[in-house]
Amino acid sequence: MAKFAKRIAYMQSTADVIRYLFEAMTDPDIISFGGGAPAKEALPVELVHEIANEVLTRDQRGVQALQYGNPIGIPDLRQAVIDQLLTPKGVKADLKNVMIVAGGMESMNLISQLYLEPGDVVLVESPTFVQSIQIFKMFEAQCIACETDDNGFVIEDLEAKIKQYHPKMIYVIPTFQNPSGRTTSLERRKAIAELGSQYDIVVLEDDPYCEMRYSGEVLPPIKYFDETGHTIFANSLSKIFAPGTRLGYIYADEPIIRKLYEVKTATNSHTNVLTQILCAEFFKRGLYEPHLKMIRDIHRERRDVMMECIKTMFPNETKFIYPDGGLFTWVELPEHVDTTLMLENAKQHKVAYMPGKEFFVEGQPIKNNCMRISFGGVAPDRIEAGMKRLADVVRLYL
Amino acid sequence: MAKFAKRIAYMQSTADVIRYLFEAMTDPDIISFGGGAPAKEALPVELVHEIANEVLTRDQRGVQALQYGNPIGIPDLRQAVIDQLLTPKGVKADLKNVMIVAGGMESMNLISQLYLEPGDVVLVESPTFVQSIQIFKMFEAQCIACETDDNGFVIEDLEAKIKQYHPKMIYVIPTFQNPSGRTTSLERRKAIAELGSQYDIVVLEDDPYCEMRYSGEVLPPIKYFDETGHTIFANSLSKIFAPGTRLGYIYADEPIIRKLYEVKTATNSHTNVLTQILCAEFFKRGLYEPHLKMIRDIHRERRDVMMECIKTMFPNETKFIYPDGGLFTWVELPEHVDTTLMLENAKQHKVAYMPGKEFFVEGQPIKNNCMRISFGGVAPDRIEAGMKRLADVVRLYL
């Protein structure tokens, strides 16, 4: 067997956990708080059925849906993104600034492909999203973890690391962050955009949860404060439409989109047209707003149940974050508890979570006593049952 | 604006032509032989409509279709690929050997990501498919063009270049090659597999057209002759199902699939589930075989019309290839005719083709007098009209 490229070796550490969590998702006996899936009850099955039934005919858009498309995406969906997702955020975009991609994560791949050379430094929040770290590592970048607190990146530390490492990119999940559930404050959003401009650094703003807000005040994206084009706003349609349709978008200055067009072409030609059309119609028919309300109601309830479970079932010394939206909370157990080792025991108790260790950059300060637990994919009564199992497991380690 | 990675500069040359051809596809006045699209009449709009209507409900597979999936693809579709596409080719596969990807081209990206270091050599047919060259260049590989004749790679030249360049990969489109329409002979298929094994080289077999055979004898893939796992078989479901659904598959030894799982995860998480389910049902319901017959009938007629047009309308000194299948023929005009320059004139005559130059590796022997013309996406009467326009343009240059 021929030798793999050396970038592949950088990626190995987390694959087993991710694989396990994918498997846990398909075992009905396991109550999994491990994945990042939204509630299945929030998936627009009936709406997609109705739209598919109408558009999938030769006189409608059936031929377009099944034929080759354009690497930048169909105009209808890009326009819907502008009108219904970007404009309400206070940012001005036109069709030349928006590209459709095959799911939220593809943006990190395409933008890494566009910018990263081996050895380039990417500054990341600590903790941050494991799959993004995997992507940056695949491109042989060096991820440097920066300090965070309840308001996101600690700006003094971020600027100090900029001066020390001369990074190519800052990667940030500003709203209901994965894994912590934290939100970057308004002042810090502005500061991050300005640091990108000042030091000529790409700010990759990954904001898949921003629409899933259940409490607190709406904040503009970092991109809103960007005056030089250094910030690239990447988003997913998975949470507000449907993960299985693999749709996301990038909003950036035109010269960047033009180059991403080439990178996308050399990645997989274009995003699937059928689901682009279904999603465009979903927006055009005014279905998004009432659907979003329903999504928020379902997940707000789940968040509330999970928060209550942590308070009432978990040991007093447990620290946790109360998220204003999204799908996750972050639980910190007493320091001696290793949540990676605990996972084996959790499996036996038929409950799964994501060990916190996976969200830290290897070789840098790691907290072994944390876990990400997601309330998105589990019904309220199952959250209670699963949290009881998990609390039982935790107690074994105290 | 921050600086792009240097790999991006390697990719610039063909983007304008590809962009132009995408645009030509959407202008109804232009008869375009430039793209690689199959006949719109061959797209299974009604079948997909019927299947979507049945599966997109909560009690059926609607929830699965819209929820996150597995990076390797859904078992149903992988099994259908094994039973209905691989087994008939004489190759033995099980689920561990097959991965679903987001369209045929994504395989080239994922496999490049898995194997190619900057500076690695990829041996390619000359001419070969422009988009694959773009991908290899994005990974900073050096593409070395090898001699071909009517039976594919000239094996003596291929082996000489192996000894000279110590390549990492051989890239080959064995059946109804893009752009030439040529098919690699049985003996050479065996020889290429053996060269891969002997010299420890990845043989990337890209075979998207193999099912679209209109005449001549069926040949086994190169992978059939592979005894060491060096050959990776990549295929598209675009031509036999629908390009817009972005589906393809990779068939390889298990250790390779396991690594591709990680690369796919770090590219776009997984392929869209909705269209995987639609396509799996298409196969499971026995719809593939009659549909394939229809596809072949439609494209055989178009091939025949185009061949007749070349013979009767084009100058006598025109050389061309008679393809036994696929979507393309390759036309060689008198040596002084530059088909890239001629494209400007063709635009004015409202006809498009792909200049042959785009299919040669830059800095290596190029033929400026060739063009790829596709009969796939154009109805027979439009083929006649378009070929008449094109013959008029050609005559201006004689």
Element layout with pairings:
Two copies of one chain form a homodimer.
Chain A: H1 15-26, E1 31-32, H2 45-55, H3 62-66, H4 75-86, E2 98-101, H5 104-115, E3 121-125, H6 130-138, E4 142-146, E5 148-149, E6 152-153, H7 155-165, E7 169-172, H8 186-199, E8 202-206, E9 231-236, E10 248-251, H9 254-268, H10 273-284, H11 288-313, E11 319-320, E12 328-332, H12 339-348, E13 351-352, E14 354-355, E15 370-374, H13 380-396
Parallel strand pairs in A: 1-13, 3-4, 3-7, 7-8, 8-9
Antiparallel strand pairs in A: 2-10, 5-6, 9-10, 11-12, 12-15, 14-15
Helix pairs in contact in A: 2-10, 4-10, 5-6, 5-9, 11-13
Task: Describe what this molecule looks like in 3D.
2 copies of one chain form a homodimer. Chain A has 398 residues and is of the alpha/beta class. Chain A is built from 13 helices and 15 strands. In chain A, a hairpin with a 2-residue loop joins strand 5 and strand 6. In chain A, helix 2 (45-55) packs across helix 10, helix 4 (75-86) crosses helix 10 and helix 5 (104-115) crosses helix 9. The longest helix of chain A has 26 residues, at 288-313. The termini of chain A are far apart. The mean pLDDT of chain A is 95. At the A-B interface, helix 1, helix 2, helix 3, helix 5 and helix 6 of A face helix 1, helix 2, helix 3, helix 5 and helix 6 of B.
